[in-house]
Amino acid sequence: MAAAYKLTYFNVTGLGEPVRLILSYGNIDFEDIRITFDDNWPSIKPTLPIPYGQLPIFEHAGKIAHQSLAICRYAAKQAKLVGSNDWEDLEIDAAADTINDFRLKFVDYYYEKDPKVKEPRKATLYKEMLPFYIEKFEKQIEKNNGYFAIGKLTWADLYFVGLLEILNFILGKDLTDGAPGLRGINEKVRAIPQIKAYLDKRPPTIR
Amino acid sequence: MAAAYKLTYFNVTGLGEPVRLILSYGNIDFEDIRITFDDNWPSIKPTLPIPYGQLPIFEHAGKIAHQSLAICRYAAKQAKLVGSNDWEDLEIDAAADTINDFRLKFVDYYYEKDPKVKEPRKATLYKEMLPFYIEKFEKQIEKNNGYFAIGKLTWADLYFVGLLEILNFILGKDLTDGAPGLRGINEKVRAIPQIKAYLDKRPPTIR
């Protein structure tokens, strides 16, 4: 029988990986469609039901959704990685949005083509943004019992772990070096049996 | 008696206004703290409990939250502007995230200081981003019975209307000109009695 859910993304970690981790955590069967670099993306793109030109897209019961954070939140509700009241969900959502703000600093630098713009952005990322966010993340994780929010494992943690590989790829080093809170989250999440099983079986990616 | 909620932002519309509109819609009493340009923001900032250096912040029952989208979603749950199942909420969340992506194109241009970077960004915003998003928004609104999602009024509509004033300020014109779907949402939301009452009593802002 076909899986109830279908995720379409490229064969990289990036914005698809947090969704894959959350679905795997919940033992939710999904079709993991990966467009590879051998595929002709410009010719495939018009054949896909992409609402705003961007992947991932997520399909279920004949309906199509986009926006990776929104998909993660939906998947997290099914996987029981959300809070137990509205304020807890606010804290989890705010943590995920802040991790996304952090990600956008990487994206702004990495995808810039003009070297005159790219170099100062790289300097700002390394010298200002990384220490600013990592210091605050560490304090937040310390206050939250080793997690991003509400003192226990939530989808904000899986969102971070899912993005970590591409952030480290862009950075050229492991950003959890010297950040025991972030490192701890990465290790704890990767050790969860369902997550470990997914990581062991996923196809290799270049980033 | 003090209001149960307290929102702290600057005396502009911006990221605070969607929260103000959603709370007003729900008749939820809140303290509407506005830091003005006469206040000395750099001296006030260290006195506020700001988790990641940015406003708005939102306080309730001794707890503090940040991230405007997360605050909007929380407020929308209290104001009953959310969906009736997880997939509907996914569609609303995706609409709000897409409106936020659109906003970020304005921010990327407006706050850039280097004229050599700013000018091409302005050109991209006007010639590519505006027509791209507006065409897609119009189609989405047409499919959704005159609203952004699930065929009825949700917080995604109030999120758009709350941001519209600052987007128009940056653009120097009304982006709903020639976009009947977006214009219709703005008019419908502003005509809701609780929203109209808020708009009539809010302090004047420069943008």
From TrEMBL, chains A, B:
It catalyses: RX + glutathione = an S-substituted glutathione + a halide anion + H(+). The keyword Transferase applies. Keywords: Transferase. InterPro entries: Glutathione-S-Trfase_C-like, Glutathione-S-Trfase_C_sf, Glutathione_S-Trfase, Glutathione_S-Trfase_N, GST_C, GST_superfamily, Thioredoxin-like_sf. One of its GO terms (molecular function) is glutathione transferase activity. Its EC number is 2.5.1.18. Residues 3-83 form the GST N-terminal domain. It holds the Pfam family GST_C_3. The keyword Membrane does not apply. SUPFAM superfamilies: GST C-terminal domain-like, Thioredoxin-like. PROSITE patterns: GST_CTER (PS50405), GST_NTER (PS50404). Residues 85-207 form the GST C-terminal domain. Belongs to the GST superfamily. Sigma family. Homodimer. This is glutathione transferase. It comes from Psylliodes chrysocephalus.
